[in-house]
Amino acid sequence: MQTGMLGNNESLRVLLQGPISDLFVKLNGEKGQEVLTELNKFNRQEPCWVPKQEKTQIEESPHIPTLRSTGHTLADWLKAREELHRFFIGELVILRDLFSLTDEELASTTLMPAFRPAGATNRHAIEWKLKMGENKPYEETDVMKYTNSKGQKEPELYLINRSVKPDDDTLSDYAKSPDQLVKIQNKLWLGLFGWCDADTMHHVVTGEHLDPETWTWFPEDRLRGGEVAYGYWHPGYRKVYLYWSYAGSCNPSYGARSAKKVPLRS
Length: 266
Description:
Layout: E1 3-4, E2 7-8, H1 9-27, H2 32-43, H3 74-89, H4 95-98, H5 103-107, E3 111-116, H6 122-131, E4 138-139, E5 156-161, H7 178-181, H8 192-206, E6 215-222, E7 228-234, E8 239-245, E9 254-255, E10 260-262
Helix pairs in contact: 6-8
């Protein structure tokens, strides 16, 4: 493969289409001066993007459910999510009674739930993270400006792979842009709300957040101009970051999470 003074041409192409392109867009955006200031600090090898101290609930709050002893099956994780629901809303819910789950799904040790109560919005997902004692998530754009930010009239339950990384067939050599992802037939992708809920759930049960080294696209969650939301967990700053990028962007470290929507019991 051809190389030059800047290295491997394919790697250079990926860099220019991904991070460098995003940088130019952010420099030209409404927070361009802030981005330029932090970029100059980076070039001088000074600390940059140092997070402001946020007043949040203390993690050791006795009111936060302790769920590290949760079992390994999906049935166990559903019970844990019911505990979180009661903590968030003060309402008792039995997910197995609401949704039509198979015995095979309930016994699975590779699936996890993402639950969206009726009417729950993207803002609720952020507020519930704060209630769990997490640092305030970073929002490049108000999360309520994306499509699908408002909840449905009926509750929704999705099943996704229990992994800190997006699906293997959407990463690395199999990476696709959001526009390519939405064209795949018979595929439903986890959105911003579902990812935030799954991240909260995964952390409270396992102690690990989703995407500490990768990024998850939310292919259907878009701004008016078509820009697509994506998110990840920053281990250094210890909080969720929610960004947007162009729908045609493609990067080996950016993937997506397929989801199965579980039908409500009739």
